[in-house]
Design goal:
The chain is α+β, with helices and mostly antiparallel strands. It has six helices and 18 strands. The protein is 13% helix and 32% strand.
Length: 281
Amino acid sequence: MRIANVDGRLTLLTRQGPVDVEEVSGGRFTSDPQAVYDVWDEFAGWAREQGDVTGVESGLDTARLGAPVPQPRQIFAIGLNYVDHVEESGNDLPSFPTVFTNFQSAITGPTGTVRLSGDSVDWEVELVVVVGRGGRDIPAAQAWQHVAGVTAGQDLSDREVQLRPPAPQFSVGKSFAGYAPIGPVVVTPDELADPDDIALGCALNGEQVQSSTTAQLVFSVPQVIEYLSAVVELYPGDLIFTGTPAGVGLGRTPPEYLRPGDVVETWVAGVGAMRHEFVGA
């Protein structure tokens, strides 16, 4: 099943075309793309009664697509979670997940322009997990049952702000307006051939700069959910940015960062692609 935010309205994608959820459900579900996660199990059951929703290509004008999860209560992000990215960062493999948070106002949709906050802004492709069933103390063996779906994300990072002394400021350095693009759609785990082995990557001005698979995660999606839920309560509609592979600008010699006019294309296999152009401050 694939759902989208089309012109600000919750939309189910079927082989018969896009379905406006509020209209077709007779008001049983609202048009708010965020609200659906609070009733995820009920919605998923209804959605599968609306025709063939498996493996659907949307065919939608991407300019009409907004962030499929526009107002999550919580946004978690995992650092140093690909072996090759740990190596390019010059760090040792972590013994437990490195966690920070982004702020909700950084969320934006899968296309458009993003204003650079300075001259040290980096790209980071990520698989983003959307929580469907919340809870605490979720065991890894049951974690995928708590996932509504996955989407593509960019964890854009102002490295100067993130790393300036006296102490790193990861959350602030990654939370400027538009610095957490997600989309183009949310795809349920049953659509994925192997939810623990999902290809992802991104290109800068047509040059591929990152390419990997979530099989290379240091901590898998289930392990991350188990770890987080042992500390905090996860809520329906929360987002988890699961980490970025090698190929970020900071890892280049010399480091390379985004400039006005640059275009970043981000993709996750089975989900789709995003495209963003960057403009000056």
